[in-house]
């Protein structure tokens, strides 16, 4: 009876060690991914490519470039072009983040919950 309890305790201890190792790996890989995303930049352009918006991997705006041609279209149209470029930059950033998260999940042996 005592030997059975000792074996159970040893198995439980081993399981706890493996869980701690897995948690550390997830923390480390997640921190690495967050740093990588923060250093990345994603661009978006207006449909006529007269406005460019760049965001980082955390979807924070980094820069906006507007051509003279865009300025000459007037404030209302310029606003539309900036919005188009910002939306595209945001979508590109989100798409990259999702791809990197999916890769992280696969590397960690997690199931593909996104269905992609």
Descriptive report:
- A hairpin with a 4-residue loop joins strand 2 and strand 3.
- The protein has three helices and three strands, in the order αβββαα.
- The chain is α+β, with helices and mostly antiparallel strands.
Give the topology.
Blueprint: H1 2-39, E1 41-45, E2 51-56, E3 61-66, H2 68-71, H3 75-107
Antiparallel strand pairs: 1-2, 2-3
InterPro entries: YbaB-like_sf, YbaB/EbfC
Keywords: DNA-binding
GO molecular function: DNA binding
Between the first and last Cα atoms, what is the distance in angstroms? 50 Å
Low-confidence spans: none
β-strand number: 3
Rg, alpha carbons: 24 Å
Order of strands, main sheet, comes to 1-2-3
| Structural class by secondary-structure content | alpha+beta
Shape: rod-shaped
Biggest pleated sheet: 3 strands, antiparallel
Q: DSSP strand (E) fraction?
A: 5-15%
Give descriptors for this structure.
116 residues; alpha+beta; 3-stranded antiparallel sheet; Nucleoid-associated protein; DNA binding; DNA-binding; YbaB-like_sf; YbaB/EbfC
